[in-house]
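dumping this here so i dont lose it again. seq + smiles for magnesium ion
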Amino acid sequence: MNVAASASASMSAAIHAEHLRKVYSHAPPGVAALDDLTLDVPTGRIYGLIGRNGAGKTTFVRIAATQLTKTSGVIEVLGHDVDQEPRVVRTQVACVPQESRPLYFLNVDEVVYLYLKLRGADSPDARRRTKDVLAELDLTEYAHQSVMRLSGGLRRRTLCAMVLASDAEVLFLDEPTTGLDPLARRGVWEAIRRTSRERRTLLLTTHYLDEAEALSARLALVEEGRLLLEGTPQDLRARVRYPYRVTVQTPFPREELEPYGRVTNIEGGYLVFAREDDAREVARRALDRGARLSMGPVSLEDIFLDVVGRSIQDDALPSDAEEGVFERA
Ligand SMILES: Nc1ncnc2c1ncn2[C@@H]1O[C@H](COP(=O)(O)OP(=O)(O)OP(=O)(O)O)[C@@H](O)[C@H]1O
Ligand SMILES: [Mg+2]
């Protein structure tokens, strides 16, 4: 990318990171939590950050949200350098941290209301937003309960409510739905989508890849502090060598499936990654034998397992990496 293109990308990006590096003070020698990370989070969109435990997601979120300082590189939020203008950035961002507890001695509605007041909302606005967000996240019946007596998932939802009720331009949600029941998760999804319709930016980290795919306009996959993949869910699929997955439950001879794609053993049968025509052929053969089968496009989880798996394998065995679901870069 030339300099002009890079500059214009950074102007339209809500979060701009360039060669970002973070080495924690007590890290083992040579271990960086973020290593030359360059990415742009577009304004007004939901951006998904995914990766294994320890990949660096929370480190990125905390640096962008002014809670942690970088070691080197550039990080800007809404055009403001996070190190040079942290106070400006802080007024425009809100964050659901990965681990934290809302103030225990207050009721649910008080926690949300006070958070909004501290952010500068006037009283009627804070009251209205509190009422709306509690309804949105199905928390109205708990409004007057002490946070201390809530279950873990309800406390998490209270934290999400605080941040999703705010008027911040950039929202950081670090695993907002971890520990939430499936209905509550969908409530948070709706609130996330509503915030995005208000043209505000959300950076979401999650280990639920269905969630990442359902919500994110773009996704970044990080591993050991580096960017492995970045793009829209469609971009990621467009790069897939084998865009279909077929599962076949039968004692098929494996050799019969091998010519059609990449075959792995699963409980009671095989999983085949294949191109469309080959996937149809595998399905036809399975039907001929009366075997149970399922067929569909590869999931983000397939892509994740393949790309991260090969990245780990490449570290260990540089010359012996298998052909993947993905095209190699
Ligand atoms: N306060 C800290 N001091 C030293 N090292 C840290 C600290 N916090 C995180 N790390 C290290 O930095 C790396 C990235 O951690 P980080 O918490 O950013 O990962 P993550 O992607 O959020 O993982 P998870 O999915 O488990 O939340 C890990 O190797 C971790 O051990
Ligand atoms: Mg984390």
